[in-house]
Design goal:
It is a single chain. By secondary structure, the protein is of the alpha+beta class. Helices cover about 25% and strands about 20% of the residues. The protein is built from nine helices and 19 strands. It has helices at about 10-20, 40-65, 80-90, 120-135, 145-155, 175-190, 230, 240, 260-270; strands at about 1-5, 35-40, 95-100, 110-115, 165-170, 195-200, 205, 210-215, 220-225, 245-250, 280, 290-295, 305, 310-315, 325, 340-345, 350-360, 370, 375. The strands form five sheets. A five-stranded antiparallel beta sheet has the order 4-3-16-17-18. Helix 2 crosses helix 9 (about 260-270) and helix 5 (about 145-155) crosses helix 6 (about 175-190). The radius of gyration is 21 Å and the shape is globular.
Length: about 375
């Protein structure tokens, strides 16, 4: 694994906009193709196998939480315990998730967290860096089957009938979230679904018929939402969602995976696993510092690194539901100042590719740049 400086394509911005990647320069620079990361084929094979193994371990951890009723430790509201249990037992379908790894090409990848409910940076990892590869690195390959696997997974989820539409919802003020949702919607259309977009706050409740509806009072029977479950279960309409009148993707059992409380449970179930970091619900077992993380947080907010010589605190508004404490895995540093995090995508239950976010701080935040990657296939 190495960081390589390259010449950006002269028409890169236009190429990004042609695929709907309109926020490529948010914050000044977001998509950055003046550099890329090169991997060996063996490193890619390792990332793929580790992603598959950790996903299976996480599913076992979900079963453990449900079997042993550990919902409270994960700050799941009690009103939702039965619904989450039913969702898991029914194996309500999931579409995607993203592991975040610390990896330098030398030591085993270490799991930092699993964003299994509302991961973004999807269009970038799927279509944007694939077209970059075709333009810049002919003859090279990329760990990237995200697009094809999304279409296949939507087919496994089901296909629409003449009277059923799959709605896609998110907050209407975020270009990144809208773009992610529209990309996912496009893959669903390619899989045969009839779809519609709706802003999350435009979804209504028809009390007389006890159904969720769109602005024209058409029933919403299936909803994909890019909106966190931990927010949804605390919304005014949460009790109505418990009626089960609307199928939701990602399903409610995913709130057990997209939850940093999963990390101590994984360490408890798989102690000393080479791809896990020690993690606990209290800090007493650490003697040389740790990373303090809210059970719920996003985009690197409210992270505290207390390791001597590596202290760092990020601001935010999270932490009310509680904290976990994780061993410190220093991110690799390239060119003396750049810290990459590898996002490994899971589509359905299969590893599907990676995307790399890079920052000048040891915590990946919403301003971190996206860097494309490639590897040379074995001859």
């Amino acid at each position: 694994m190495r960081r390589e400086r390259i010449e950006p394509r002269a028409s890169w911005a236009r190429r990004m906009e042609e695929i709907g990647f309109v926020f490529h320069s948010v914050g000044g620079v977001y998509w950055d193709e003046s550099v890329c990361y090169q991997f060996d084929a063996d490193e890619i094979d390792l990332l793929e196998s580790v992603t598959a193994e950790l996903h299976e371990m996480c599913l076992c951890a979900v079963e453990h939480v449900i079997t042993h009723n550990r919902f409270e430790q994960l700050a799941i509201p009690e009103a939702w315990w039965a619904r989450v249990r039913e969702s898991w037992r029914a194996r309500e379908p999931s579409v995607y998730g993203r592991f975040d790894f610390s990896y330098n090409g030398i030591h085993p990848p270490k799991l930092l967290e699993y964003n299994a409910d509302t991961p973004t940076a999807l269009l970038e990892a799927s279509v944007a860096q694939w077209f970059w590869l075709q333009d810049v690195k002919l003859g090279a390959d990329q760990f990237n089957s995200i697009h094809e696997k999304l279409i296949a997974q939507w087919k496994r989820v089901g296909s629409s009938s003449a009277t059923e539409t799959l709605y896609f919802a998110t907050v209407g003020t975020s270009d990144e979230d809208i773009t992610t949702v529209e990309y996912l919607r496009d893959t669903a259309v390619q899989a045969g679904w009839s779809t519609a977009f709706i802003e999350i706050d435009k979804i209504g409740w028809w009390e007389e018929k006890r159904i969720f509806v769109d602005q024209e009072n058409r029933p919403i029977k299936r909803l994909f939402k890019l909106y966190p479950w931990e927010w949804m279960v605390r919304e005014e309409f949460a009790p109505q969602m418990l009626t089960g009148s609307m199928a939701v993707i990602e399903p409610s059992w995913k709130m057990l995976l997209s939850n940093k409380g999963l990390l101590p449970i994984l360490w408890e179930l798989y102690p000393q696993h080479p791809n896990l970091l020690p993690a606990y619900f209290t800090p007493e077992k650490f003697t040389a510092g740790y990373v303090k993380k809210p059970i719920y947080s996003r985009e690197g907010a409210n992270i505290e690194i207390t390791v001597p010589g590596a202290e760092f605190v990020s601001k935010g508004e999270y932490g009310a539901e509680g904290w976990i404490y994780q061993g410190y895995a220093p991110l690799p540093v390239f060119d003396a100042q750049f810290y990459p995090v590898i996002g490994a995508w899971v589509i359905g239950d299969e590893p599907a590719g990676i995307g790399i976010r890079e920052d000048k701080t040891p915590v990946t935040q919403n301003t971190s740049r996206f860097i494309p990657h490639y590897f040379m296939p074995l001859e």
